Amino acid sequence: MAAARDLRAMEMAGDDDAVELAKRHLVQPWPYAGSVGNEARALIGEGDGIYITDVTGKRLIDGPAGMWCINVGHRREELARVMYDQAMMLSYNTPWYTMNAPSAELAKRIADHAPGDLSHTFFTTGGSSAVETALRFMQFYNNVRGRPEKKLILSRGGAYHGSTYLSASLNGRPRDRDWMDGADHLVVKLSSPDPFRRPKGMSIADFCDFLVDQFRDTVARVGPEKIGAFVGEPVQASGGVVVPPDGYLKRIREICRDNDILYVSDEVVTGFGRLGHVFASGDVFGIDPDMITFAKGVTSGYFPLGGVIISERLLQEMRRSNHPDAMFGHGLTYTSHPIGCAVALKNLDILEDSVLAHTREVAPYFQAQLKTLEDLPLVGEVRGMGLMGCVECVADRESKDPLQLDKDVGKRIDAHCHELGLLVRPLINMCVMSPPLIITREQIDDMVAILREGISRTMDDLRKEGVWQG
């Protein structure tokens, strides 16, 4: 403990240096042109359980769990020990012509949890590379089967699938693609499955029918012989925790199956416990995709790792093809990294032991407590599932318009909450919450109380500025 205190004292002494070094040398993700390469963001010193501590020593509830990923909480000694032990045994091996035992064992355990005939895993370094791998595999699969024209990808408004060139081309969130290029010729966009934004006067059941009809009509118009895959998150995470209408995903899955379109379920966020199960596709939504992508919670953020689980049927079809010499020319230096896979195995032990059951037990309370915030005039809707939640703020509940004069109201709420002891994930006019899965009911109460106060203070600010009257 004394050594840890001494280390933290050294870190605190260097905090000012870190800020200056960041401004001089560090390029942050998702920067604006006006501040790129000259920006320092909130400096975090340490984490413990569901809490993090910032540079001032303020203790904060980690509302976003890092980035949807610190599922078993910060400072798990057993995960740190696994990293050390594996590094001392084997720190790395080339995946091109060698392999390691942790990756083979992890692939087997993942297959045990996966729905349908998903049986084989290709490991990547994160979610973006997992989605990129799934899409490149789809292209390879159709080339081997003699269908080089079957390459188009169906995606949806509000979607987020990554930051690599091909995966980012699928994104459908506001502002993601305003200044960025993409493979637009390969992507066909569909409507967001957001019931809150459905046409006025339309029931949710009718909205589901509308979405399914649009999907079916799009397949017919574009031609199933040209469409290789549909990629969809079971719950659109960074799009604002959009939970689709009941039965929607099953009906889309059937259309894909009928038209030989590969269904790729993007579980980078929902996988490994966020909805109380290792995978939500089968256990929560009752679907059996052709591929599932995952990352984030697979190691609880302790090591960069992701992957794509592939249907046994697809692999058998390629093995039976007339092109046994066709090479899937895709791989990463850190594919099947032994340290990452070892950490994932221990993380899976922790999830299976108690965390998944705890998540299922506490999730209804989490959703009910968040829902109480709907009595605030600025809040248009609170929605979510499992330990995912979104508070969407609107200027007018009738029109459901976000604040036209303050598109960054989420950042205002986050600033107030930070002062009060809670880190929030602000998304334009939304606040997204996805705390570590080990959160207790008492800690949920604390989180919601701070969020209520942060929104209330923001309402006061907007009234004073004449931006909004409520």
From TrEMBL:
Gene3D superfamilies documented for this protein: Aspartate Aminotransferase, domain 1, Type I PLP-dependent aspartate aminotransferase-like (Major domain)
Highest taxon of the lineage: Bacteria
Listed Pfam families: Aminotran_3 (PF00202)
GO MF assignments: pyridoxal phosphate binding; transaminase activity
Transferase keyword on record: yes
Alphabetized UniProt keyword annotations: Aminotransferase, Pyridoxal phosphate, Transferase
Keyword field contains Transferase: yes
One Gene Ontology CC term in the entry: cytosol
Needed cofactors: pyridoxal 5'-phosphate
NCBIfam families, per the entry: PRK07036.1
Family membership: Belongs to the class-III pyridoxal-phosphate-dependent aminotransferase family.
Identification of the protein by name: Aminotransferase
Species in which this protein is naturally found: Mesorhizobium neociceri
